[in-house]
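Class, study these two lines:
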Amino acid sequence: MTKKRSLLGHYPLVVTDLDGTLLDRESYSFAAALPALEELQRRGIPLILNSSKTATEMLELQRALGIQTPFIAENGAGLYRVTATGDSQLWHSFAAQREVVLGHLCELRDEHQYRFRGFADMSPVEISACTGLTPAQAVAAAARAFSEPLQWQDTAERLHLFMQQITDAGLYAVQGGRFLTVTGPCNKGAALKALLQELGVLDSAYVVALGDSPNDIELLQSADVAVVIRSVHSEPLQVEGPARVIRSQAEGPSGWQEVMQTLLAEPALQTERL
């Protein structure tokens, strides 16, 4: 990753969630955010993708964005780098393999008769129907290494018990925009910290983080500037820790563009060509 020093003497990075944040929740387009994305590239400010998506999905998006920065997949479970040939390579993992997660979920469902459906229960056609992804994109979404997205079909009361049992099993469940995702005890913020340590900029990075869902809270709280993208699909996020919290007026990539346009005009994201 190319490091550019800002006028404040920091290394600016922008770290973003995808669905409902950089990507439109229905169309999965980032077109509304293109002006800010292009300006980040012009200035050499790294864009780090940090999502619940799989490595396969994220690599395809990286190619569409024209970036080769490291990225974080499956809610902080895997940190990946991009090789010289443009492929992804697992750099560090922070959670158990998906087979372990599926084993615990099967045991809980059999014992308590919980009603839920995970990606492992669905065909690519069914995943496509409930996500709006194309069949090919649904295959990429199903290629999970660490986590299992669930559609909860039971009561709210039983969800509370289920969440406690997940914790007791040493796992972690967090609500995203569409799915309750179960994985090992990892999160987007801890994975970002590991990445900054690997890059040698943990103490000098100036991090702008953007997200819209409860699974983004740890990421937002690890940033210098936390940007909460408006979402009608979840309650307003309560974020504590960053020196500055900004809330967009618009949703998805329109909100991303709205806030980033303002931040790009500020000194912290002005860069010198070193």
About this structure: The first helix runs from residue 34 to 43. The domain at 98-183 is CATH 3.30.980.20 (Threonyl-tRNA Synthetase; Chain A, domain 2). Residues 105 and 166 are 8 Å apart (CA to CA). The chain has two domains: 11-93+187-269, 98-183.
